[in-house]
Design brief:
This protein is an alpha+beta fold. It has helices spanning 3-37, 53-60, 66-87; strands at 99-109, 112-122, 124-133, 138-151, 154-164, 178-183, 189-195, 198-201, 203-208.
């Protein structure tokens, strides 16, 4: 082997060793990078979906309480009735003065007969009155809420919100009734229906107890 050939062989071998070393080093680095970037498979516990904000909000939102809304409506009705009593310069009665039961009731005002049923359950009740409506030239019936009050004239059942019987339609031309229960010095009761300065005697008979 000549010196020139030997040098060429030596140079080629050195280049081969360098190239092999570079290849080996880069290959290991690539494998390490691949191993470090690999994502572990999720465990069964990790695969459980987390609840969405919407579902969390819906589950945590309390449902409306129907009994609470009913109590609120009842409270509003009581306030409205209290305002009616105060507007008549009256006060709420004592519980011993509460009225209970169903009563047949009737009176005559301006030659027109009024008859109906009064149902009382303590302080508040309802009354349905039937009469001949001259404007309509027919028999009409009106429902009213009746609230008991203690006034200077005696115990008074104040009519409130007259409507066409069996409906929520306002009875626009009907004047609310004010039924006065007054015990005279003789001990007897006087029953009167008073409105617009006039009073009419009332006939009243208990039918049933509540």
């Amino acid at each position: 082997m000549t010196i020139k050939t030997f040098r060429i062989f030596h140079v080629c071998r050195s280049l081969f060793i360098v190239i092999f070393t570079i290849f080996l080093t880069s290959g290991c680095a690539t494998i390490d990078k691949m191993l470090s970037n690999s994502t572990p498979s999720p465990s069964p516990a990790d695969s459980t979906p987390s609840p969405s904000p919407e579902s969390s909000a819906s589950s945590s939102t309390p449902k409306p309480n129907s009994s609470a809304s009913q109590n609120a409506d009842s409270s509003n009705d009581e306030k409205e009735l209290d305002q009616l009593v105060q507007s008549k310069e009256c006060i709420p009665p004592n519980q011993v003065e509460y009225v209970y039961g169903n009563y047949k009731i009737g009176w005559t005002t301006a030659s027109i007969r009024h008859e109906g049923i009064l149902n009382m359950n303590g302080r508040v009740g309802k009354m349905r009155i039937q009469f001949f409506d001259q404007a309509a030239n027919s028999t009409s019936a009106v429902d009213q809420i009746m609230v008991l009050a203690s006034c200077t004239k005696g115990l008074v059942l104040l009519g409130f919100n007259p409507v066409v019987a069996g409906t929520n339609e306002k009875a626009a031309n009907y004047i609310t009734d004010n039924l006065i229960f007054r015990r005279e010095t003789s001990g007897e009761f006087t029953l009167l229906n008073c409105y617009q300065g006039g009073c009419s005697p009332i006939e009243m008979q208990q039918v049933t107890n509540n």
